[in-house]
Amino acid sequence: MRRGSVSVGGVMVCGEVRRGRIHSVTMELAGKGRELADKKDTQVSCLLFFNELLDDPADLFYYGVNRVLAVRHESLKYFNQEIAAKLLAHIVGIYLPEIVLAPATTAGRTYLPAAAAMLHTGLTADCTGLDIDEESGLLLQTRPAIGGNVMATIKTPDYVPQMSTVRPKTFRIPPRMERGGEIVYPEVPTDIFESRIEVMSVEYSDDGDSNIQDKDVIISGGKGLKRAENFAIVRRLAELLDGGVGASRPTVEAKWIGYPHQVGLSGKIVSPKFYLAAGISGAVQHLAGMQTAQKIVAINKDPDAPIFRVADIALCGDAADILPRLTKRITEE
Ligand code: FAD
């Protein structure tokens, strides 16, 4: 939609419901949406679409949402990109938000571009920073560019809504605050729920340790581990600390470990309380995925390794030697 052709307003957050639960990324975006809306003195709405909902949508008010737009339909049992895109485009057409924020999850990455195309607007994917330009009131969308070497800040003055996807864990969930709001069940024409795609079944990977974004502790391995077998030491320490296993991209490319474990620009962004990087050099693309961790410990045999610049504790030495010693020490305590 071209700016000027319609009257617009508000921030709309696209929530994500997985197996009936409101995913935490919804609260992260609600908090950021609230911040942006406060700067523009406007409201935050949150679109939730689902077949069943086990959580109370009113909980989103605590995170700054003024209005939950809840759409329930049996066709939403499994994520369907075509239906999700049509639904979002329809809801945007009714509520005319100025800004639309969505998670850069597998689902968000597929239906947001399609919805943006339907709305004849643009989309800035994988934003790591969002703000409001004081002068123009436009959304400032910051994202890594040129292999993560440059942070580009993008303004889209001509098109509305301004749409962004944001990776989970980029923004922190704000503290809960007592606030009110309304839950609206918008009417949606039935043809929105028709699709050429029929999802027959979905198999969920319950490989708990690959779900690293929810972990408080992550132990990650890099090429400095030398061999795939050495990931066993990383796993052992992670298990001991009830943590997840992370990895650098070259170890994933070498098939030492699966892609769900990759941390970084082209992997997952994590923000745990404790991140241990063993045999990881600390390339900008890796740092982009973990530098917001609260405590970073790095093991590297090169005293000049860039990872030491972001580390709170630097252990200079052989990872294959230090990791088992750490594990032994923790087991004994
Ligand atoms: P290396 O660079 O090979 O470093 C190995 C480190 O181990 C060195 O610092 C070395 O001193 C140390 N070492 C060696 N032996 C030992 C030992 N015995 N004990 C302790 N330390 C030892 N990378 C990611 O990780 N995630 C991404 O998402 C990602 N996305 C990318 C996207 C793009 C567009 C591009 C261009 C690159 C991306 N990369 C990503 C790759 C990134 O640039 C680096 O190549 C990568 O992070 C390096 O991985 P590494 O540190 O494991 O390996």
TrEMBL record:
InterPro entries: DHS-like_NAD/FAD-binding_dom, ETF_a/b_N, ETF_a/FixB, ETF_alpha_N, ETF_asu_C, Rossmann-like_a/b/a_fold. Its cofactor is FAD. It comes from the Bacteria. One of its GO terms (biological process) is fatty acid beta-oxidation using acyl-CoA dehydrogenase. One of its GO terms (molecular function) is flavin adenine dinucleotide binding. This is Electron transfer flavoprotein subunit alpha. Binds 1 FAD per dimer. SMART domains: ETF. It comes from Synergistes jonesii. The keyword Flavoprotein applies. Residues 11-199 form the Electron transfer flavoprotein alpha/beta-subunit N-terminal domain. Keywords: FAD, Flavoprotein. Belongs to the ETF alpha-subunit/FixB family. FAD binds at residues 248-249, 262-266, 279-286, 300.
